[in-house]
TrEMBL record, chains A, B:
Family in the record: Belongs to the PhoU family.
Assembly, per entry: Homodimer.
Name under which the protein is recorded: Phosphate-specific transport system accessory protein PhoU
UniProt organism field: Fuscovulum blasticum DSM 2131
Highest taxon above the source species: Bacteria
Gene name of this polypeptide: phoU
Function of the molecule: Plays a role in the regulation of phosphate uptake.
GO process terms (BP): intracellular phosphate ion homeostasis; negative regulation of phosphate metabolic process; phosphate ion transport
Amino acid sequence: MMRDPHIVSSFDKDLESVQAMVMRMGGLVEKALLEAVEALEMRDEALAERVRAGDAAIDALEEQIQTECARILALRSPTATDLRTVLTVMRLAAALERSGDYAKNLAKRSLVLMHMAPVNGAPGAIRRMARAVVALLSDALDAYIARDPAKAAEVRLRDAEVDQMYAALFRQFLTYMLEDPRTITPCMHLHFIAKNIERVGDHATAIAEQVIYLVEGAVPETARPKVDSVPMAEG
Amino acid sequence: MMRDPHIVSSFDKDLESVQAMVMRMGGLVEKALLEAVEALEMRDEALAERVRAGDAAIDALEEQIQTECARILALRSPTATDLRTVLTVMRLAAALERSGDYAKNLAKRSLVLMHMAPVNGAPGAIRRMARAVVALLSDALDAYIARDPAKAAEVRLRDAEVDQMYAALFRQFLTYMLEDPRTITPCMHLHFIAKNIERVGDHATAIAEQVIYLVEGAVPETARPKVDSVPMAEG
């Protein structure tokens, strides 16, 4: 489809508005993740409660995006790249909604952990992992807006580092639990927190793959880090 | 949109074909889940490997469904209920794909667990939970095909039972670990298996909610069992 760059179609205007909503949603999810790990580290109950309550706004935004995309499909009947773009936006919103759920879950677990003895060093390691994942998510969304498959490919590769951070934490928690059985309950919560952050990384990777698919029309051939990777070495 | 029931439109034929693919996908996912827990219980390495390898067929089917739905959207430009139906099919396929990932993950963890001392009673409890979830998934897909919101509402309620089974297992694993630290590693894997089965139940619930939305045009008001429920009592 040829387009005069000086003519902005109704479709383009619709798309721009819904993309702005996705970016706002991305910002909220990133903030929720960072604040949830901060609440965990600082044992800040009020902050954890705010993150928990804030998930409703993320969910509402997702519903608004999905409704708006359905309206665009019905009203504009886009084809080819335009159709693929709308479907991509819908998948991005779904991935962000799930990531928001993980942030909320993290906040809930941090509230539980505040009433237990602290596990040395764990919150710091969790924070580093969360920051790496937030950077991934942010770069994946930037790659979408810029339609930049090279940047998206880089996000895919960096997700492997997050998986390594998770595997290292898994080993660390096992060691703590074996050394001191009183740490079993907090370590299980910390382990789930680490796993949830790793899953947000998987969603960032999925967004990056959507960008590559959108621009290049094909999913990358090389296997990506697995969604449900089990650190087999620890088994 | 009024329709003469004796005239089958091109859209209806397309929809029927893609719905048949979703049902086939559902069947594969249910089989994968049941075989994965059987492999865990019987310590059947070959079966676990088959489940693991079989996930590729589920993923391929999902991609085929998403591509076909995009083709229907582009070619038929459906509106109103027809559009909502195609979008529902896309969400169903995505939910089944993730459920298949959980079955694969379960198979991988069962392979790890085969090389550890058995945890008394755990595989049987896991099997019961998996059977309940497979029944939920199957009923949710039936509710979709029959466009039966009452059946879908019942699936939503029954998911709470699965959540209770998960909470009971969580308590059981904690007890084992506290009593005998040598069970910590297998119990962590078993705990993840239970959590993954619970998540398949959440996907069945999400499918049921899609059916209610499709037929009644509104999401149910009453809060559904939470996706990322943390058994706080155990915290």
